[in-house]
Amino acid sequence: MNCQQCRSLFVEASEDLLAPDVRSEFEAHLRQCPECEAEMAGIALLSTRLDAAGSAARHQSSNSLIASAVMANLVHLKPIVFTWSTIMKLTIPLTVTAVAATIVLTTIIWHDNYSQASGQQLLDDAAKAMQNVNNLHITARMRTAPAENPGEIDVNSDFIPIEIFKRVAPDGKLQWRFDKSQRVIAMDGKSTRIWIAPIQAAVVLPPGNIGDLDWLGGLLQLGDTLKNEQQHARMSGDQLKVTQEVSADDRQITVLTIESKSRSLHGNDWLKDRSLETSNTRRVYRFDTESKRFEGLQIWVHPDNQDEVLVFETTAVEYPDQIPDAKFTIDLSAGVQWQQFEAATTQPVAPEFSKSRKPDEIARAFFEALSAGDKDHFEQFWQVKMAFPDAVFKAYTGLKIISIGKPIRGFSNHQWFVPYQIQLASGATRSSRLSVRNDNRPQRWYVDGGF
Question: Tell me: the pLDDT tens digits for 313-326?
Fold first, then answer.
């Protein structure tokens, strides 16, 4: 069944008048054609709303009925798709005025639905084009703190450069490297290693741990990421817009803009705009029109009561034939040794880490252990065993706790951020929010960030 045949059956399908074999073929076409699927959804919505009007609708004039459908659409902000076949097959007579009004509305809403369908198709084509990409090199700039977790954004920070390499090795294993000023993460196909410059921490992560790449990890698997964008747009109603432009080297570029709302923050304003999922964003993808390959990405955040802020922007995207092996290793400073993360053994939960404790109590005990230079006690606050470098204790031993603030709830009652201010022995002060959580089976508290 082609698109013309499918569209000719919209009205019959909305009234459940298709024969079983025809409906089967009709539905098969909708599953593989985003344009027809979007148009049929609009027809079905219109039919539902007209049916809901019940007997009252039959007493309205034709003009009034169309006006009601128009107003219902505007109030609910849901697109209704009118086609000529719909207009011609309506069982009520339409006046010239009503038809004219319908045509105007049709033009506006058809454009919106066409853009949505075009965006869906573009995402599908681009996802397929990126699935077979083996080598990728991206340079970008991002508003973030130099040593923070890779995916954390800060709309008030300056831009810092980042660099990403991806390679699929001959044996099929994925290798990659993320470089962000004071934090480097590399995966050589066997293990993931992370280097955090400020505390001279060089750690071999547990299998499967990618080092908190968060949303940036999606740039390593763009085929899957674009598929996820496609699915999310369908489920959440993200607005898609497709335009065209010409690149500096005179190539046709297709531009896809996605307007997306943040996930629910449960009243926690502190999490707002700290990551993409907690921000209202405008994401602008660019693809080569001919090959559908990824050409670039810009991300804007819409803070409340403030102009939008550009937080991420690719500056170059390359598909090299070869990437040197050295890109997937990390050279350490003299005297620094790799430390192996070890999964914490299953032991009875000590009272000080039990679920009965409060987040601010955990934070205070954490800094007291650090102040005392009690390395063994300090390392018990982490979910996994790790030999912290001596540089940490030299800097923080003898600290004074200035304040421990009221805990801020994260995405659940098992994740909290505790504001703190401390003074080091050197006289310097530090302030941030310690991340503590107890989302494990025994609900044992541990620290997982903010330090």
Answer: 999 999 999 999 99
